[in-house]
């Protein structure tokens, strides 16, 4: 019986560690990532993994959760368009820009209305919370990314 309690306790501690440090759910709101997320104007709940960010293995095309550029207590979903050292076309200024070292260029899939790096420039990698791994809500749109 003590062995079972010990295993249960270990499992709970390990799960809590993983939930806090590796995986975390986030609510993606708004139309900036349509049609990939929130396509039916319903908020999507996504599972974000933080290992890619911690290990520095994010790639162009990954959907990420970032700390909002203007509201540090808010989180937003965006797609990585360019990594440090890359040159990328800014659709708002209609100029090419080079992403600074330690920074990333993020955009919404719905670029016409998205407030993103096209408006405020590249962002420090420290603002990237993690990579969207899985959409778990709504249930009829479960998706791995």
TrEMBL record:
InterPro entries membership: LexA/Signal_pep-like_sf, Mito_IMP1_subunit, Pept_S26A_signal_pept_1, Peptidase_S26
Keywords: Hydrolase, Membrane, Mitochondrion, Mitochondrion inner membrane, Protease
MF annotations from Gene Ontology: serine-type endopeptidase activity
Compartment list: Mitochondrion inner membrane
GO cellular component: mitochondrial inner membrane peptidase complex
Domain Peptidase S26: 8-94
Active site per the UniProt annotation: 32, 78
Complexes and interactors: Heterodimer of 2 subunits, IMMPL1 and IMMPL2.
Family to which the UniProt record says this protein belongs: Belongs to the peptidase S26 family. IMP1 subfamily.
Protein name in the entry: Mitochondrial inner membrane protease subunit 1
Lineage: Eukaryota, Metazoa, Cnidaria, Myxozoa, Myxosporea
